[in-house]
UniProtKB/TrEMBL annotation:
Pfam families the UniProt entry points to: SduA_C
Organism: Laspinema palackyanum D2a
Protein known as: DUF4263 domain-containing protein
Protein origin, superkingdom: Bacteria
Domain called Shedu protein SduA C-terminal: residue spans: 32-194
C-alpha cells in the first residue's frame, strides 16, 4: 500500500482478531514473515491498528498502511498513525524461529544477536534516518500533513519459548536502554506482542 488508508477502529472486531492471533501462536511454533505473519495481519486491520497503542502519543488509530513505501528507498511492513496528533508507529516484522533473535556460536557460552534480529533493527534505523532527512520538505508534509511528526519503531521477532531467561532479560534491556536519534525502538517477541495487546485492548474497552 503506497498511501495511508483512513480507518475507523472497531474494538469489538479487534477482540475477535486478537483471539485469532492467539490461536495462530498456539497452532504454529515457527512463523514465517512472508507466509504467515504479513498475510495474517493484512487480513486483520483492527488488530493491526492496535499496534499503534505501543506509541504513547497515539490515541486514535485512524491511519493504516501495509508495506508502506518510505520515500522510495525503504518499505515499512506496517504503519499506524494518529492524524490529529501527527504521531506514527512504524512496525517491522521478522520471523519467529529458534534462531530469530539469538544464535549459538561454537566455543561461546553466550549466544550472539542473530542476523535476522540485526537486519530488522537496522531497517528501523534506516527508516529513522530517512524520516529525519526528509523532514521539512514538501513531500514529507504531503504525506504526514505536517513537517514534524512524533514516531517510534517496533520490531516484532521470535518466540518466548526459544529464549532462556537471561536472553529475555537481554532483549528487554536492549529495548529499554537504546535510543536512535532520541526515538524509541520497541523490540518484542510475538508472544509478548499478544500479551501486550491483550492488556491494551482490555484497558481501551474499560475506559
Amino acid at each position: 500500500m503506497k498511501k495511508f488508508e483512513e480507518i475507523e477502529f472497531s474494538p469489538s472486531q479487534c477482540a475477535v482478531q486478537l483471539g485469532e492471533f492467539k490461536k495462530l501462536l498456539q497452532k504454529k511454533k515457527d512463523l514465517s514473515e512472508r507466509d504467515d505473519i504479513l498475510p495474517f495481519f493484512k487480513r486483520r486491520k483492527d488488530l493491526s491498528a492496535l499496534l499503534g497503542s505501543l506509541h504513547p502519543k497515539i490515541y486514535k488509530y485512524d491511519r493504516l498502511a501495509f508495506e508502506y513505501n518510505l520515500f522510495g528507498d525503504f518499505v515499512v511492513d506496517l504503519a499506524i498513525g494518529d492524524s490529529t496528533r501527527k504521531s506514527y508507529c512504524f512496525v517491522e516484522f521478522e520471523s519467529a524461529k529458534d534462531n530469530s533473535i539469538f544464535v549459538s556460536k561454537a566455543g561461546k557460552t553466550t549466544p550472539e544477536w542473530s542476523p535476522t534480529f540485526e537486519r530488522g533493527y537496522s531497517q528501523i534505523v534506516d527508516w529513522f534516518w530517512k524520516l529525519n532527512d526528509m523532514e521539512r520538505t514538501d513531500e514529507f508534509e504531503n504525506r504526514f500533513n505536517g513537517r514534524n511528526i512524533k514516531y517510534v519503531g517496533v520490531l516484532v521477532v521470535g518466540r518466548n519459548e526459544y529464549l532462556e531467561p537471561r536472553e529475555l532479560k537481554r532483549l528487554k534491556w536492549r529495548q529499554e536502554n537504546t535510543r536512535v536519534n532520541s526515538k524509541e525502538i520497541y523490540c518484542l517477541t510475538f508472544d509478548e506482542l499478544y500479551e501486550d495487546l491483550s492488556v491494551r485492548l482490555n484497558t481501551y474497552l474499560s475506559i
